[in-house]
């Protein structure tokens, strides 16, 4: 039990305390107390160690060449100084076309070392225009390493053929009779990958071997966990009050009464006149 000061009329009995003063009222402290609370979540950073097993298949591949293939180019001669040729307006107005085109992308070639390239000149437009190789576009020095010729240009079976030697320089194919009809033949080292005209690639052998690898990686992953954080909102105390009834009470008692006695007739009268 505890005392609590309460204000207002009717808090005690009549005459219990001084006029216009508060009185103490007993409050039962064992009475239920209601507490209102709210809970909010905070955050906690946890860093667990997670082990991840990564498995897979590894592959190793090797490419080798067992023989030289042949790439064949169809050579024709186009007159009229075609404007898309790399030597347009230079030398002869006749230009070599490769596989039907005089465009730079068609006539500038890439020849790989160790491979054989056949320039077919059997078309009649090649008459009088034998194709040969040189170390410069102006035909200052002829290049003959690995070069063979057959027949007469413009007739069936005519061709010029070259097997590119290792370390061969950049070459230029030109007409031996006229200037600037051909273009550049860049030479590159192996991979020796060929595609012969109209036939599948048969000169490349690919070997593939399967291995196996297991990779165990320790991965540290940051995990955010939730922690509980509690805060109080408001507290409401509901006391058990002992209430005293108020009102007006009265207590009556009888004291001494004044009683007139009987008149004694034989008394001696004593009186005097009042003026």
How is this fold's topology laid out?
Layout: E1 2-6, E2 23-28, E3 33-41, E4 44-46, E5 49-56, E6 59-65, E7 70-78, E8 95-98, H1 104-107, E9 109-112, E10 116-120, E11 131-134, E12 147-150, E13 159-163, E14 171-175, E15 183-188, E16 204-210, E17 213-220, E18 223-225, E19 228-237, E20 240-241
Parallel strand pairs: 7-10, 9-15
Antiparallel strand pairs: 1-2, 2-20, 3-19, 4-18, 5-17, 6-16, 7-8, 10-13, 11-14, 12-13, 14-15
Count of runs of 4 or more consecutive helical residues? 1
Radius of gyration: 63 Å
**Can you write the helix and strand succession as a string?**
EEEEEEEEHEEEEEEEEEEEE
Distance between the termini: 78 Å
Largest sheet, in brief, is:
5 strands, mixed
Structural class: mainly beta
Spatial order of strands in the largest sheet: 8-7-10-13-12
The name of the CATH topology of the largest domain is: Immunoglobulin-like
How would the global form be characterised?
Answer: rod-shaped
Determine and state the CATH class of the largest domain. Answer: Mainly Beta
Please state the average pLDDT score. 75
């Amino acid at each position: 039990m505890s005392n609590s000061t309460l204000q207002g009329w009717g808090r005690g009995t009549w005459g219990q305390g001084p006029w216009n003063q508060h009185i103490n009222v007993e409050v039962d402290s064992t009475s239920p107390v209601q507490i209102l609370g709210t809970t909010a979540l905070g955050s906690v950073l946890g860093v667990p160690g997670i082990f991840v097993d990564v498995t897979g298949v590894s592959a190793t591949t090797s490419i080798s060449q067992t023989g030289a293939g042949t790439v064949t180019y169809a050579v024709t001669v186009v007159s009229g100084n075609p404007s898309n040729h790399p030597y347009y307006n230079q030398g002869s107005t006749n230009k070599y076309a490769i596989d039907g085109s005089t465009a730079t992308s068609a006539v500038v070639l890439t020849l790989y070392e160790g491979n054989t390239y056949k320039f077919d000149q059997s078309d009649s437009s090649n008459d009088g225009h034998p194709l040969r190789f040189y170390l410069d576009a102006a035909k200052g020095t002829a290049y003959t390493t690995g070069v063979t010729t057959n027949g007469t240009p413009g007739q069936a079976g005519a061709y010029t053929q070259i097997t590119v030697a290792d370390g061969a320089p950049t070459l230029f194919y030109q007409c031996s009779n006229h200037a600037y009809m051909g273009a550049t033949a860049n030479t590159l080292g192996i991979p020796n990958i060929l595609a012969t005209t109209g036939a599948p690639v048969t000169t490349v052998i690919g070997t593939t071997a399967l291995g196996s690898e297991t990779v165990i990686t320790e991965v540290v992953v940051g995990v955010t966990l939730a922690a509980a954080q509690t805060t109080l909102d408001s507290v409401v105390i509901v006391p058990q009050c002992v209430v005293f009834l108020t009102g007006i009470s009265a207590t009556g008692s009888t004291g001494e009464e004044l009683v007139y006695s009987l008149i004694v007739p034989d008394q001696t009268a004593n009186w005097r006149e009042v003026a």
